[in-house]
Amino acid sequence: MASVTDSADANNPLFLALDISDIDTAASIAKKLKPHIGGVKIGMEFFYNFGARGYERIRETGLPIFLDLKLHDIPATVSAAVRTLARLSPAMLTIHAGGGIEMMRAALSAAKEADAPPRIVAVGMLTSLEDADLKREGIPQTAEIRTRHLADNAIEAGINTLVCSPREITPLRERFGGDVSLVTPGIRPEGAKADDQKRTMTPEEAYRLGADILVIGRPILHAGNPEAAARAISESLQPHRPGE
Ligand code: C5P
Known about the structure:
Bound molecules: cytidine-5'-monophosphate
Strand content: 15-25%
Radius of gyration: 18 Å
Largest sheet: 8 strands, parallel, barrel
Strand order of the largest sheet: 1-2-3-4-5-6-7-8
Distance between the termini: 28 Å
């Protein structure tokens, strides 16, 4: 039987971005950090490297998995992909809001057919893009307006979980109130290196502003003691959790 310290806390908003290129290290770190995180995010790099077999190694930890493959294709292809990926029972699965309302609806309805439907999460405008990139695409919107536009489309398609940068938490909360769940990368604890993240926020700030899930990778993975780093972040959020 698993001891209390072995078990994940399903309501812990901290998700570990498992951006690790060695499968054994990834599996062992996920297992070790399990008591201090709510789940792990598996992205394209991991999935394309290790496939479903590697995924299963992580799933064996019992942690909820956020499968971040950012699907973007015609509705029929995306719904087929969602149906296939749903067999892996991820807790969450990303698609691009830019794929259009019909694509998002198709993804959602494919997810609902699954025995354990993954929560479909919409990725809006990539934070690597800015106004000039939109202009180059022929899109006459600012990044801010584009972000709001894609969020509106996701909501219209019936998707209520959005990925956003920390600086979008407040405008999205103002627009949608409690009707959406927000998943936020770009988080850095006080004093942590920013790496390539440009506009960061501390876990506490982002959580207090209204993020529901915080995706954090390098500040934990590259810490001298990843377990202690995850524990410290998790404990900093504890007082702000509902019911605390
Ligand atoms: O290491 P770090 O905490 O920056 O990891 C953040 C994770 O969130 C990475 O897996 C990264 O790919 C992802 N992500 C991001 N910014 C976005 C979307 C996803 O950092 N806009």
